[in-house]
Write the structure tokens for this entry.
Amino acid sequence: MKKNILFLALSISVLLSDNLTYERDNTNEIVFDYKNNIVWQDNLVEDKHFTFNEAQEYCNNLELNNYKDWRIPSIKELESIIDYNKNTPAIKGVFKNTLTYMKIVTNENSVNPFPFYWSSTYSHAIDYSTVERKKDYLYSTVSYLNGESGNSFHYEKNYIRCVSNLNISHEDKAKKLIWQDTYEVSEFNLDWKEANKYCNELNLNGYNNWRLPTIKELVNIFDRTKYNPAINNKFKFVNTHGYYWSSTSYVSSNDKVWTAHYLRGNTTERLKDSKKHNYVRCVRN
């Protein structure tokens, strides 16, 4: 008899090859994204830092190749063009103009020293009841230096890459993943090698073809409209005091891999031999 264990089936999109998904207009320096039905700005806004409100005004006033109605992209849109197999820049190869450094301006104390790009996604990364200034809103951000995600207060200064909607439809094939959602995902402290072994040997509800998820798969179940935990509400078990292992290597170091943190929905790299505060949630196709 099968054990009465909860597991989830979530539908996610399968990425088509980049040649089919993206197309760059080199003359006008824009990128057509047929997966997300948007067009990306891809001209270089050299060393220009924006607060969130300044970035919003910049996109609202942008006119590029007869496209108007530009806007700040969502965090999901920004993350969809990360290439975790690359570094400096960690972005799809079709994009030619990406800033991966940040000049520090001595008279601008609010300039973020890391090269993050604004998203329009409001972040619940802090408990606002403990913030003195209730208008210090946070927004999710992405760095294409290495693909890391983060958060910035609205008055901090970051880079911007605007998007505009395409009036076309594009249908992706769908693939279902089955996620482990048992108490073990919030209890086990494992290093990366142990996490791999655990998933490979897991026998759950009659299935034994489990594996470590990729960083893209872990990011796909973020819900940044929530805080502690910032995860799809279908999941019952999650530990928000540590990091979840992925199978995705960190390009600049063989000793590190990408991890996801579900307190606020962030990604970062971790040493493979780290054990404390590292957890695992297995997945299968």
